[in-house]
Amino acid sequence: MSQRNLLGGTVVFAVALGLILVGAAVAPYAFQLGGSAPADTENAAKQAFDADELVATPGPESGEVTMDSNAEPKTVLIDVAHENGVSESDMQPLVDALVANGHQVKYLTREDAQRNFNASLRSADAFVVVNPEQPYTGDQLAGLRSFEDAGGRVALVGDPQSAGTTSVLGLITVSVSSGAVGGDAGLTSDYGVSFGSSSLYNMHDYYLNYENVYATPEGETALTEGVDEVVFRDAAPLSVSADSVSPALVSGGETRVESIRKTGPYTVAAQSETVVAIGDADFLAPESAYEADNEVLVGNLADFLVSGDKESGAPAPATPESGGEAGSAPGQGTAPTPA
Amino acid sequence: MVSKPSSAASARTISVLALVAAVLVGAFLAPVVYDAAAPTPDRVAVISVDGTITSYTADQLEEDLHEARENESIKAVVLQVDSPGGSAAASERMYLAVNRTAQEMPVVSSVQGTGASGAYYTMLPSESIYVTPSSVIGSVGVRGSAPYGGTSSEIRTGPDKASMTLDHREAQIETLKHAFVGSVMDHRGDELSLSREEVAYAKVYTGARATQNGYADDIGTLQTAIDRAASEAGLENYEVVEKEPPTRSGIILLSSQNGNSSVVIQESPIGYDGVRAPQFLMVYGQVQYEDEVIGNVSA
């Protein structure tokens, strides 16, 4: 092997090795120049959603709670003696309207009720019961009947009650089997109205949530004068069984009862000459009182409360004989039926 | 003249040595060259969607699907789903990632046990959804805690800084529902025998029922889904690559209460430590944050 051959081989080897090393050194930069695939600038997420079609917007809360009545100053007694599931602030729009129109609003405390329930009623022209959780005594029931017979106004307002609790009016203990039956064998049965224990909902036409149902006037009642549509949150269906009581507000046709899923429409408010029954308490609260025409309904309820002309001295003081057992029988209840 | 035979022999020796060296080097390099030259086998990627959906779950799925889109050898994706859903935002991200992937390659889903709420949202863009008769899917709905009031011990720059009205919270949740239900109708409207309102009831269905009402396409196992994905991609010979499910963090106790699935979340994997921020959930089962029960209905 000549030196020339060896030199030639060495040169070739060095050149090849050099090229490889240079190539290896340059390769990363070459790959970097090539880069990864160009970024996909197409906004696929925006194609999947149209924000304009998605957004739900709360309606305006407007209007004022006003009263049309020019009645003389009356006294409205609000029951907070029976562990009522409502605070004073929850009824502020109603109270404010009454006070602004010269009427007096008092709260029946537990002590008042225990000391002399009938005496408290005697000094009042209207009695408001909202979501009581303690049952009334026989004497109290008798006093309430006498109060109403004498022309006193009674407003019964209640949300759906869960099974095993007291009835919507706290008049008796409820034992609910179907979940849609309110136990109202006490005073409310006397009034010809019973409250359902299961909520209403509407999957087709509702305000922001399926449990916020719309209700519209049924017939012509003073309670719904000027009302086109109200929103009830967590409403209870009412069953009306007396000729003297008329449905006042009815939910939409596709409303259902949550427990039995039976399609409505359902009565959610009813009125007789002396009694108003409303299957929702939330509309009285400041948060809901100005949705839809709720403020008109609140004003009409205030007008109703001061519309009576109660005989003085009623109810008479309770006697052992008059104490009776009224309202103490277990409620049988009736299933709410479509209006 | 005497040296000529010796020179020739030397040249032959060098040639032989060079040949041997070439063979040895060739034997070493040949497999590398072969692998480099051989065509890459087509693959079907199986990606798990497992457990409660959190932002971490979404991170992992987005990463896996991005890799699937970038890797030219992956021709189809199968989602192996066993989840009751979870965070609404994370579920939405996962839906979008699957939706984008489905525009580039076949995506098929296989429900192993539960594919509910946010998990169902995730697999909506799939070409086909396979279930077993006892698997559970559906629950097309959103849930969230009611607003809570701000504390009087702090100063806020606006009335809604730490809270909001019930109306606005309901509107937010309703907006999310519109997106979820709308996506269901967009992707499966042709298959569904249910109306939009019926879908919005947020029911869950067994796999058997789901094949009847259009929530799912057919009864099938994971292998059925893989075969379908490969078929959709036009593959005859393919490999299956599996992506491991993300490690769960801070979760989970599974128990049963009143016959309903119960998910007890510890260390708040969906929320933010130390901050009680409102959460929107797309989850099926009872959810409990520490001692606070947010809700107990399917959604």
Q: What does this protein look like?
A:
The complex is a heterodimer of chains A (339) and B (299). In chain A, 28% of the residues lie in helices and 18% in strands. Chain A has 339 residues and is an alpha/beta fold. Chain A has a single domain (75-318), classed as Class I glutamine amidotransferase (GATase) domain (Rossmann fold, 3-Layer(aba) Sandwich). The radius of gyration of chain A is 35 Å and the shape is elongated. Chain A starts with a helix and ends in a 16-residue tail after the last helix. Chain B has 299 residues and is of the alpha/beta class. Helix content of chain B is 39%, strand content 24%. Chain B is built from eight helices and 15 strands. In chain B, the strands form three sheets. In chain B, strands 1, 2, 4, 5, 6, 8, 9 and 10 form an eight-stranded mixed sheet that branches. In chain B, strands 11-12-14-15 form a four-stranded mixed sheet, with no helix packed on it. Chain B has a three-stranded antiparallel sheet with strand order 3-13-7. In chain B, helix 4 (118-123) links the parallel strand 4 (107-116) and strand 5 (128-131). The longest helix of chain B has 35 residues, at 3-37. The relative contact order of chain B is 0.17. Chains A and B meet through helix 2 and strand 8 of A and helix 3 and helix 5 of B.
